[in-house]
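[Meeting: bench + compute handoff]

Bench side (C.D.) handed over the final construct sequence. Compute side (W.E.) agreed to return the predicted structure before the next meeting so the bench team could plan truncations. Sequence as handed over:
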Amino acid sequence: MKQLPNTNPRIEVIDALRGFAVMAIILVHNLEHFIFPVYPTDSPEWLNILDQGVFNGIFSLFAGKAYAIFALLFGFTFYIQTQNQKRQGKDFGYRFLWRLILLAGFATLNAAFFPAGDVLLLFTIVGLVLFFTRNWSNKAIIITAVIFLLQPVEWYHYIANLMNPAHQLPDLKVGEMYAEVAEYTKAGNFWDFISGNITLGQKASLLWAINAGRFFQTAGLFLLGVYIGRRQFFIPSEKNLHFWVRILIISAVAFAPLYTLKELIMQNDTIIRQTVGTIFDMWQKLAFTLVLTASFTLLYQSKRFRNATNNLRFYGRMSLTNYITQSIIGAAIYFPFGLSLAPYCGYTVSLLIGFFTFLVQVRLCKWWLSRHKQGPLEYIWHKWTWLGTKR
C-alpha cells in the first residue's frame, strides 16, 4: 500500500480533529450562555438579524455534531490504549474502568460550573459498553454500532404506540428540573449554584440525553471509533483516502433527505416527534458529523490546511483541560455570581467571546506544551490511571 508523505500523520490528524471538536463545542456553549438563556431585549433590528444568522449558522454546523466527533474520538482513543496494553500482553479493560471513575470526577468538576450537567458523565456511563465489547470481533463491533445508531428505544416506543395509542414515553420531568436549575442560577448564590449543578444539573443532563437519543448514539459512536481504529482508517494511504471520499459522498448525499424528513416529521403529533422525529434528528446529525470528519481528514492531507489548522493540534492535546476551563470561564462571564454579562450579550457578541476564549486557550496550550508533555488535567488523568503500577 502506497503511503502518502506526512509526519506522524495519525497522531496529528486526531489531535487536530479533537481540537476542532472542542473549539466547536465552546462556540456552541457560548451562544447558549452555558444553558443560561438570558439575552438582550432591546437590540437594534440590524443586530437582531445578525444574531439570528449567527445562531442559525453555528448551530447548523456544530450543534450535536461537535460532541459526536468528540465521542467518536473517545472510542478511537480507547482502541489505542487497548492496543498499547495488548502489545505488552495486558488487558486494559479493568484499568479502563478505573479510568472511567476518574472521568466521573472530572465530569463533576466541569458540571459544577455548567448548569446543564456534563457530557463527560454521559461518557463515563456509556463508556461501559467499551469494556464489555473490548474483545469482540470487528464484525460484531460494527454491527452493534449500527444497531445503537439506529436508535432502537425510539423505534420501540413508536411501534408500541402504533399497537396501543395509549402508550406514551415516560415523563422524565426534564423541563421541571431545568426550570429549577434556572431559578437557583438567577438567584446568584455561588454555593447553591455549585451544589445544585453537581446534583440536579447532572440528573437533568442525563435524563435530557435519554430524551434526545444521545445514550444510544454515543454508544454507537464509541464503537464506531473503535472500529475505525482497528481498521486504521486514519492512517493516510491511497486506500484510506478513497474510504474517506466515499464516506464524504454518502454522508453528504444522505444529509439533505434526512434533514428534510426530520423537518416534516416534526410537524406531526408529539409521540411521533419524540420517537421518529428524534431518530431522524440523530441520523441527520450523524450524517453531517461524518461530513465534517471526512472533510477534515481529507483536507488534512494538504500542507496548506495543516499549517492553517496547526493551532488545533495543541488545542486537541489539552482537550480535557480546555473543555473544563471553558465552563469555568463561561460561568464567570455570563452568570449572576460572576460578571453577569448574559443580559448584554446577544449571539454575535457571545460568538466573539467564544472565539476570544478559544484564542486565549490556544496561546496557553502552546506555552504549556512547550514545557510539559501533557496538559495539567491530562497529566493527572494519566498519572492516576496508572496508580499502583510502574511505568
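W.E. noted at the follow-up: The chain is about 75% helix and 0% strand. C.D. will use this when planning the next construct.
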